[in-house]
Amino acid sequence: MLSLRDVTAIPEYGLAPQGPDPAIAADREVHRALILSGSQWMGPDISQALIVSDAGELQAVDRLLGALAVGRAAALVLADFPGGDAVTWIRDAATRHRFPLLTSTRPLSAWRSGLARRVADLAADRARRHAATLGDLIAQLDTADPVGGVTRALAQALRAEVVLRGPEGIVTATPPTAPLTLASVMQRPDRPLQTTPTGLFAGTVPVGADHVLIVATDEPLGRADRNLTGHAATTLAFALAPHHREADTASVTTAVRGIRLSAFQLLMTGNATHAQRVLAGIAPGLLDVETTRVFIVDCARADREAVMADVERRLDRNALAVRCPAFHQHIIIVAPQHPEHDSEGELRSLRQTFGSSGVTVGGSPVHPLAGIGQAYGEAADALARAAHHPERTVISATRTPTLVDVLPAVPAHTWAEAFLRPILATSRSGSQILESTALAVEFRTSAAARVIGVHRNTVARRVNQVCAAVGLDPDRTLDRIILSLAIQIVSSLPQPPAPPAPHSPEADVSLHDVLTHQQVRIWADQMLRPLADDRRDLVRTLRTWVLAEFNADAAAAHLGIATKTVRSHIRAAEPLLRRDLITGLPQDRDEEDDDQRLSGLRPLTIALYATTAPGAPYPALTHRPRGGS
Amino acid sequence: MNRSALPRLHGAAFSESPEDAYASLRAAGPVAWAEIAPGVRALVVTDHAAARELLTGADFARSPEHWTPLPDVVATTHLALLRPGGLQHVDGPEHERLRGVLDDCLAGVDLHAVRRGVQRHGRALVGGFAPRGHADLMAEYADQVAGHAVADVLGCPDDHDRIRAYARSVVDAGPDSVEAAGKLMRRLREIVREKQGSPGADLTSRLLAHPARLGPGEVELLLSSMVLLGIAPTAAWIGTALHALLTEPAYAGEFVGGAVTIRGAMDAALAARCPVANASVHYARRPAILHGVVVAPGVPVLVGHAAVGTDPARPGRGRPRDRSHLAWSAGPHHCPAQALAATVAEAAIETVVDALWDLSTPTRVITGRPGPFQQCPVHLGVVFAPDRRDGVTGADGGGADGVVDTSAVTHATGANAGSAYAGGADTRTDEKGVTTGHAVSA
């Protein structure tokens, strides 16, 4: 929702439009900026991008502009133009192609080192604010005076004068003097664009059959603002309808759906406050809670829309249900904990309607609102188990004691904080970064990206940055295990009341100390005990497999048995441990593989670590294998 | 010798204008000191006669066991390409035996099938970006085609992406080169094991089945040479020759008229911009004299294939049928896969030029890729008229087998079509031919 006009107005970029027609061009949407030079190519996807280059480096400009237009780039920017006057032949070419051309007083090096990235940040920020404003408009429907509320909200968002006129005259106006300023416009409500005697730009939008909305601003409205005005008109039509609650229109439904998804994605990325604000409009108070649970419904053979309708009917306004943007058969439900509403019971009874279609439900235990990322992970785990469950429903009512619960709180926290210090200390949004990293390490990067609504390159970069900051290899499974463990500890174990003094012996805790703690050993023994029921020595195979960094071939060679046998032992262990192990392995850049989850490997590795016999080698969690750099 | 004054064969300045460094090396003599990585010095031969003497003589060894770098240098440099492994680092009778097997087996590669495979991959790749009207022909085409071609020859078509990425990291001599070299060797080991279990009609299986009965380790060593010295140089050759065809004023007119063949441009590229820039590392077994320069044992002596190609004193330079460049190296370690590389490069260039007839490059000067070992454009961004047809031919188009008629490369640009992908207009030499060569020395 960032337009070329908006970017041009920011002095930092030193931009000046050169043609063809600034007024038309100014409305184009800008999502990012890409560099085009002898050392950098713009890349395959150029849509909504500013292409920044140096006039001295360019040739074949005619053909280039043609390609930029086909790729729906936003504009070509010529860097380092002190006077802001483009080379004539480039400007002529831009005019021929009717493609926006700008000059920038800033050099290409400045764009490369930060300006380009800031364009993308700005665009993301605008999109979020736009969503929030849409939410505000729709929020007015629940107030005592929806018509006045929408008009006021629109006037405030656009800094505009707004009049709503009906067949019997003016319905409402903001500010109250607006009808005077806009008198001339109201004479001719059939003209969509007019200027007032005082020089305002006025637009008229029909509302329903017999109303008209008039909006006047200092500058002509950009695309995002027109979009907002259009939504306001739809909302007003809805509010003016005799029984507006029943007069459901498709566009309002779509808007509400979009807002719910944004709110969910904001929650997943740790922006709980933003999410509350966005959702305040359509579901006031829904997220004003401390704790929540997350459920995932796998619709299997049932139609997702049908299941969704039933879920919404059952949960009414007590939960936030969204269609999963990554997995097309999933519905994700964020169910805040209200004493008088039983979301769990309602979801359990989904099976009565859709039982024959293989619908399964997984639910997380109660989490604080800020920990939804983790709750989602646990719900996904539960969903995986639900497929093997007779009830087809697994809801972890209370947290079964997982590894994180049995870790000695103070040493574990001390270790994890120290380990993640490079991230927690340097970045203002350190904990948010960890939240999305945790998700990406746990699931495939691309699925995680879709769920939280961030581009997958961004997620991948974040994971790489985090790994680099703490000195881990993002491709190594054991390293991913360490990282996810540290993040879990920091985000779900309560902060110790009195952290040890910085240089005391207690402050110097290693992961080895944490993992060989008495409590962890007891937990590990319990976890591995079911394996004893098998007459084969599964523990030995698993241990060798983990020591070989999950390479079945290497494990087989070491044990002197066939690779096939190693795999069959691992598969035999899966039901006994109730965990997926083989499907949890990251396949080398294989995006098609559906489920790549650490959730099974992590506890197994740590349990084996904790139960390592004296003198035997430990899994290489706390040290690098020989030869590693 | 003042270390800071040594010409640098790494870093941004070298990537931008390698000829500057080569000019200083030439000025310092036929064999001169250069810095090939931060803190790593080596002798580099830039003189044609000296290079021939080194490559064909028996006084110097190829095995890196003769290298005696400072201990901290070994730990910190990313010159995985200098480390042991690969036929290019083997000497004497051992080399003769392995090279014989490799030559036998490479002779069995069906070059017609290779050509058809490259055309098929090439058309599919072009189909991916043709509707878009712009592409990076290095990353989206040349690298991919070369990776596919080598993977197909080795019999591991599904591995093309990873082995290409590993080879790229090693040749770039970046921070991950040592790790990539390790991953490549592990993967090659798996491939050899798979082929032992189920042989196919591929180079790997033929190497394993050769009567000389090579061990799996020896086959892995040969495969690593094929990957490391096969993929990146071939890709660079494709990219550089394409760049020359698109930007050299000499080609712009004549290519359309048929006076210049693709093969002619490819040969010119080998001399003017040899893809393997500095390689063929030798070590003196005992103190030796090379063209009047004393070489102490333990010092790497590199052949500057790129600098030799542009050596003004090189006999035959600039003549038609110029073959005295050492892009393919010379002596016992000369490239064993010349015909294969030329087949791949020629078919790749023909395919893309035929499919997208109005290519032009929107950036005047293109920087080179990093490190001392290669000479290759960092990208080859092109624009062209988008292909609006729905299904752009992926597999069996017309002319699947025959030589494709590539008769039209035109320039969309009128204003000064510059050339030379590295080095601005002021650093350009008087040469016409830009491009590449391919010096695999194994």
TrEMBL record, chain A:
Pfam families: GGDEF_2, HTH_30
Residues of the CdaR GGDEF-like domain: 293-384
Residue span(s) of domain PucR C-terminal helix-turn-helix: 439-489
InterPro entries found in the cross-reference section: CdaR-like_regulators, CdaR_GGDEF, PucR_C-HTH_dom, PucR_C-HTH_sf
UniProt record similarity statement: Belongs to the CdaR family.
PANTHER family membership: CARBOHYDRATE DIACID REGULATOR, DNA-BINDING TRANSCRIPTIONAL ACTIVATOR ADER
Protein name listed in UniProt: Helix-turn-helix domain-containing protein
Native source organism of the sequence: Streptodolium elevatio
Automatic annotation (TrEMBL), chain B:
InterPro entries (UniProt xref): Cyt_P450_B, Cyt_P450_CS, Cyt_P450_sf
Superkingdom of the organism of origin: Bacteria
Biased composition, class Low complexity, residue ranges: 416-425
SUPFAM superfamilies: Cytochrome P450 (SSF48264)
Gene3D superfamilies assigned: Cytochrome P450
Annotated spans, Disordered: 416-442
Assigned protein family: Belongs to the cytochrome P450 family.
Identification of the protein by name: Cytochrome P450
Protein's organism: Streptodolium elevatio
